[in-house]
Specification:
By secondary structure, the chain is an alpha/beta fold. It contains 17 helices and ten strands. The protein folds into three domains: 3-117, no CATH class; 126-157 and 224-396, TPP-binding domain (Rossmann fold); 164-219, no CATH class. It has helices at 3-13, 18-32, 49-58, 107-124, 127-138, 160-165, 173-185, 188-198, 205-219, 231-235, 250-254, 270-274, 298-306, 308-320, 333-346, 359-367, 382-396, and strands spanning 62-70, 73-77, 97-105, 143-147, 242-244, 261-263, 281-283, 322-326, 350-355, 370-375. Bound molecules: zinc ion (ZN).
Length: 398
């Protein structure tokens, strides 16, 4: 049976998508490569072993062996062996032997799966960015994911432009067109100022923050299956900790262990972040559980990014770790400043995944010390395709 047949058989009998089947087989291959295993050990990876195992067995990608315990001696034999080499009795004589069926995957399976996974990877990464992908993979143990709005969109949340658009309803026409103009320019802080100066219901920072909290709570798709977003894929990278500029709970909802939404106020020092094992989530721009922590206005941004702590944290992080920006547009001038200063002092390899980058954009990123990884995302049905392409990249980093 060819790999295609095997994939198709599992796909039909276990009602999994082809991508899921390839992931499953890859996981099995990586778990059991070069080792003998018992049938029930597959249970740890897949529940439907009764269905999966016969398919695997008939695929020809598995070799069978017999383990024979003869007194104190244990030996593994090929299946056509008839006699025990210790006592010369029949192997199948269970009065003297304890027999266990063992299996081993043929090397060809992992080899063919690796080729298949590479093909899939190449379908979402242009050749010119493959080098950076492998560079990222080589450095994956020191990666700190830095998540921006893009990772929260699949969970139903708005980007800044949409978030603001929903807040401008009570502006008069003249103010509204100025407000829209600022949003279109990407000057979100300017647009917030227009709201504060020209509305009654959103005239204070507190009102604006409350509004944003309510909006996030209303839109957030709690418990959304892992297929439809990349949060779990990012958690699976098992970094020392996470940084996000998002106010929502997506990371802490999908991770295990410490699920407290830390803000800068609650972190003693950079050492606490780097403390391995805790894998805490730092909400750099605050979290909806603490509306006062949310960085929304120009004044908030200035206060945050002038704070010496944030500089010392980034110096500590960038001195020993490599950042991986995901769903982060990198056009936040305040953040850029901090990044550039720390990068000038410390250098390091910091990666950014964005979609459909033009080579000129990529070159500009390289100039400021970023390693850009562009993923190919078809614009029709963009949201779904983005999640899929990013999923392939993140899974292949493991
Ligand atoms: Zn024997």
């Amino acid at each position: 049976m060819s790999l295609d047949n095997l994939i198709n058989n599992v796909h039909l009998n276990l009602s999994m998508s082809e991508e899921e089947v390839i992931d499953l087989l890859t996981k099995i291959s990586n778990t059991f490569k070069d080792t003998f295993f018992r049938r029930n050990q597959l249970n740890n990876i897949q529940d439907d072993v009764e269905i999966l195992f016969p398919i695997l067995k008939s695929s020809g990608y598995i070799d069978e062996y017999i383990q024979c315990d003869c007194g104190e001696e244990t030996e593994i034999y090929l299946p056509n062996t008839t006699h025990c080499e210790y006592c010369n009795q029949l192997l199948k004589n269970t009065f003297v032997h304890e027999i266990t069926n063992l299996f081993k995957l043929k090397n060809a399976l992992l080899k063919e799966l690796n080729l298949r996974n590479e093909e899939i990877l190449k379908s979402v990464i242009d050749d010119q960015f493959l080098g950076i992908f492998y560079e990222l993979k080589d450095n994956i143990d020191t990666i700190i994911p830095f998540l921006g709005a893009g990772t929260s969109l699949p969970l139903g949340l708005n980007n800044w432009a949409n978030l603001l658009n929903e807040m401008g309803g009570s502006l008069n026409q003249q103010d509204k067109s100025f407000f829209d103009k600022l949003i279109n320019k990407g000057d979100y802080l300017g647009a917030i100022n227009v709201l504060k100066n020209n509305t009654l219901n959103l005239s204070t920072d507190e009102d604006i923050k409350k509004h944003i909290v309510r909006q996030i709570e209303a839109k957030y798709k709690s418990g959304l299956a892992e297929n439809y977003h990349n949060i779990k894929d990012i958690i699976n990278l098992e970094p020392a900790f996470f940084i996000t500029t998002n106010y929502d709970s997506s990371l802490i909802d999908y991770k295990e262990g410490d699920t407290y939404p830390y803000t800068l106020e609650q972190i003693e020092d950079a050492h606490e972040l780097l403390n391995k094992g805790k894998q805490i989530v730092l909400h750099l721009h605050g979290h909806i559980r603490f509306p006062r922590s949310m960085i929304i206005t120009k004044e908030d941004y200035e206060r945050l990014y002038k704070d010496d702590r944030i500089k010392s944290y980034f110096n500590a992080i960038m001195g020993t770790k490599n950042l991986l920006f995901i769903g982060f547009s990198f056009d936040d001038e305040y953040f850029k400043d901090i990044y550039n200063t720390s990068f000038k002092n410390l250098g390091g390899k910091h990666f950014i995944i964005q979609d459909n980058l033009h080579p000129d954009e990529a070159r500009d990123m390289i100039k400021v010390g970023l390693r850009p990884l562009s993923i190919k995302v078809e614009t029709n049905n963009y949201g779904e395709n983005y999640v899929k392409a990013l999923k392939i990249v993140l899974k292949n980093l493991l």
